[in-house]
User: Which sequence fits this backbone?
């Protein structure tokens, strides 16, 4: 196990290094000048040249890369061009809304998807099974920005149950901030429940036909116990995989929903950073997201062994 | 709780249901995070809108866009030859850090402005010295008369902002400290910029007019919330979250009009889309091809495609709308010709060889792109070959600096109170538009101080612009903002101010 984790950690570092190298090259290959953007539309060519020099963007790309890698190894992700703040601080400010948004969304998704998935598998071929599959397809097909706008218009603008956007002002309490996240979480929960539902159903279908389920039933065990204790436990590995990956995707990819609801999270940050050509922030966000992704992958893999004793590393 | 109580009280007193937007904290949705909170360093409108509340200038504009004193006691005494400006400062001004304004602060601030601000750099060559004969007087000595100086000192955009000496170090600011009616309390990037009433503020005694006169301090807190998505700004306004929302999509007009919580603010003649022309290199260095381009463009179709409803635009060839002192009709017949035959003849006269006309535009501002789409068809009909280069704004901002990459780039501008603030006229601009006659008129225009003569000279400049096709104004467009019902005290402006905003 220890050896396995060590091997995975080495792989993790390689992946992260590759990600940051690719990110570095891609953002610099893209046209667009952060200096011109910062100065505004009427700035002269010379103003932009001066600012580029001040920001160190006129240095050769290899020098910039070497300095970026060396600093990153020391935990210094550079200074945001736009905010003039350390990237680590900018990212830390944005982490909270994104993490809570992802957490609530995954809770919504799991709460919606797993019981329906289990039930659909249990009543395979029934009207309710068909309805569940159709609903899942519908949820997966609706673009999240559209669903976001519709729910925002209905529940925030018309009914006034939720704030339309944002994350609260300076005096907002923790609970008030969470109130801001409920509606966008619901949107992401619905969208992401589709995949979890289908995985749950498929995985349950696999195990419900197994011998040990039949044996449990023949011993006279109650249906609920059969389904939840025997079948669900064995069907859990693919479900956990998909839930874990969905969570990782939510942390890194709730871009559209964060934008529609104007949540100052990492998704919104990275979109703005690309528009502003804020290279250090783009790189920093990618490093953090890649790290998170590989960590979640590792945790999911380790969970296999906890859930299923047959899995050995 | 306090908020709720005040809200209930306000509702009771007024007899109407007030939205939360009109509580003591005024939330204003702006189009995005300002690039900086130092207004010297940016020409972006959103920077001006926010910073004018806490950083002030020597002069400002009144409701008629006339220069009026702000931190200065009065308009300056100008020497006969127009080269010496003597400015007396108000005596009772305190900065937000508690220090008192004196001429040393002004001298340092203005010197910084000349060296770091885009508009300051533009005038720097003509400034011989800025001195302080005493603690409350500042003298600006110019090498030659330069009449736009006062407008430059008054403008909140790339502003000649006045800071205390102590916060300026090697061209940088160590803190944002101003003299405005509101002070900066907290800035959470991408979340909010929170301003609180500055208790040490002493307003001017004159009646309030535009940004001039006695500035009020109505809301306890003004909170600017960056909301980059336009439909999110609309929903925020309609749900009552925001008291004011800047730059709404024109498609939202009917919804905002029908709302019981909000109402539209339509700022007619807000600005003008402009086709910037490359005079330094490429196809359009040939005057006949420039004239062919101008002759072929169908301005009415372009404006209609871009703005959809004539409530939101005017097809108008003069450089300033009705009601402005700079309005004149010189050569406006050359505008909106929509004449492919004339264009084709001009192309023939220029021996046009089919080299593509490269139009650099962006979808960041959808109306730029829509105009270009319509124009492309008309230009092709006239015989042009057209190559559209559609990029994001960051790329456009970079590529337009290289004259080898474009023939036309599309941008827009608000109507500025002083024509010389539009740098497109200057031969030194990115466009490089220069001919001896125009350069001479421009030189006279910036040196002249008599308003009637300046108006006449501007007419000649407009004539040059249209006959030599320096750049092309496409029309006038309106800007849609929205405000909570019952909100008063905000004058419609490209740079609205909120110190006087509240429920009445």
Assistant:
């Amino acid at each position: 196990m220890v050896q396995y984790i060590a091997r995975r950690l080495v792989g993790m570092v390689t992946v992260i290094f590759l990600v940051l190298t690719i990110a570095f090259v891609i953002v610099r290959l893209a046209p667009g000048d952060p200096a011109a953007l910062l100065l505004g539309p009427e700035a002269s060519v010379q103003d932009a040249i001066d600012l580029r020099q001040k920001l160190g963007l006129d240095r050769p790309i290899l020098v910039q890369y070497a300095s970026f890698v060396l600093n990153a190894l020391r935990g210094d992700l550079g200074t945001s061009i736009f905010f003039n703040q350390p990237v680590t601080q900018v990212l830390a400010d944005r982490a909270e809304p994104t993490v809570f948004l992802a957490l609530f969304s995954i809770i919504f998704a799991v709460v919606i998807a797993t019981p329906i998935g289990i039930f659909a598998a249990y009543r395979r071929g029934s009207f309710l099974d068909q309805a569940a599959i159709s609903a899942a397809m519908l949820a997966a097909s609706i673009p999240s920005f559209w669903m976001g706008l519709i729910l925002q218009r209905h529940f925030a603008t018309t009914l006034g149950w939720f704030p339309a956007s944002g994350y609260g002002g300076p005096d907002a309490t923790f609970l008030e901030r969470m109130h801001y996240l409920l509606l966008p979480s619901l949107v992401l929960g619905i969208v992401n429940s589709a995949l979890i539902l289908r995985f749950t159903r498929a995985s349950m279908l696999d195990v419900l036909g197994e011998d040990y389920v039949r044996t449990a039933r023949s011993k006279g065990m109650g249906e609920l116990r059969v389904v939840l204790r025997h079948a669900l436990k064995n069907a859990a590995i693919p479900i956990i995989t998909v839930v874990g990956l969905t969570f990782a995707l939510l942390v890194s990819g709730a871009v559209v929903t964060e934008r529609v609801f104007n949540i100052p999270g990492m998704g919104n940050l990275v979109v703005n950073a690309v528009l502003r050509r804020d290279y250090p922030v783009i790189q920093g966000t990618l490093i953090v997201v890649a790290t998170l992704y590989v960590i979640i992958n590792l945790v999911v893999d380790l969970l296999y062994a906890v859930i299923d004793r047959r899995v050995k590393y | 709780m306090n908020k709720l109580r005040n809200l209930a009280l306000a509702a009771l007193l007024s007899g109407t249901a007030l939205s939360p937007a009109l509580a003591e904290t005024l939330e204003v949705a702006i189009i995005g995070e300002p690039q900086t909170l130092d207004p010297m360093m940016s020409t972006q409108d959103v920077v001006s809108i926010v910073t004018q509340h806490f950083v002030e200038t020597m002069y400002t504009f009144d409701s008629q866009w006339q220069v009026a004193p702000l931190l200065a006691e009065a308009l300056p005494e100008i020497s006969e030859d127009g080269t010496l400006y003597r400015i007396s400062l108000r005596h009772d001004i305190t900065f937000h850090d508690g220090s008192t304004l004196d001429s040393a602060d002004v001298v340092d601030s203005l010197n910084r402005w000349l060296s770091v601000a885009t508009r300051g750099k533009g005038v720097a060559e003509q400034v011989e010295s800025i001195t302080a004969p005493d603690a409350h007087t500042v003298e600006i000595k110019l090498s030659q008369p330069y009449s736009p100086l006062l407008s430059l000192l008054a403008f909140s955009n790339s502003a000649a902002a006045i800071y205390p000496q102590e916060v300026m170090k090697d061209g940088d600011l160590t803190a944002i400290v101003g003299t405005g009616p509101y002070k900066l309390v907290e800035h959470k990037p991408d979340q909010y910029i929170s301003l609180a009433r500055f208790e040490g503020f002493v307003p001017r005694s004159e009646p309030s007019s535009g940004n001039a006169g006695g500035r009020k301090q109505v809301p306890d807190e003004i909170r600017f919330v960056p909301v980059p998505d336009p439909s999110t700004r609309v929903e925020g306004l309609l749900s009552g979250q925001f008291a004011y929302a800047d730059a709404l999509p024109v498609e939202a007009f009917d919804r905002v009009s029908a709302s019981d919580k909000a109402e539209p603010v339509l700022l007619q003649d807000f600005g003008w889309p402009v086709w910037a022309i490359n005079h330094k290199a490429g196809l359009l260095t040939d005057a006949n091809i420039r004239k062919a381009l101008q002759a072929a463009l169908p301005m009415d179709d372009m404006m209609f495609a871009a703005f959809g409803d004539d409530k939101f635009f005017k097809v108008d060839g003069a450089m300033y709308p009705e009601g402005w002192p700079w309005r004149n009709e010189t050569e406006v017949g050359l505008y909106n010709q929509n004449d492919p035959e004339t264009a084709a003849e001009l192309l023939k006269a220029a021996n046009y060889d089919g080299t593509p006309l490269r139009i650099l535009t962006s979808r960041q501002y959808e109306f730029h792109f829509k105009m270009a789409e319509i124009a492309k068809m008309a230009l092709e009909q006239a015989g042009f070959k057209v190559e559209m280069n559609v990029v994001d704004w960051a790329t456009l901002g970079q590529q337009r600096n290289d004259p080898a990459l474009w023939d036309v780039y599309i941008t827009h501008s608000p109507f500025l109170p002083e024509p010389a603030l539009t740098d497109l006229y200057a031969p030194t601009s990115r466009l490089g538009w220069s001919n001896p006659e125009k350069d001479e008129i421009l030189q006279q225009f910036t040196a002249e101080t008599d308003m009637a003569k300046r108006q006449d000279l501007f007419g000649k400049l407009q004539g040059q612009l249209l006959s030599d096709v320096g750049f092309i104004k496409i029309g006038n467009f309106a800007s849609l903002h929205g405000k909570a019902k019952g909100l008063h005290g905000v004058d419609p402006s490209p740079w609205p101010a909120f110190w006087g905003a509240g429920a009445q």
About this structure: Chain B touches chain A through 52 residues (CB under 8 Å). The mean pLDDT of chain B is 92. The first strand of chain B starts at residue 25 and ends at 30.
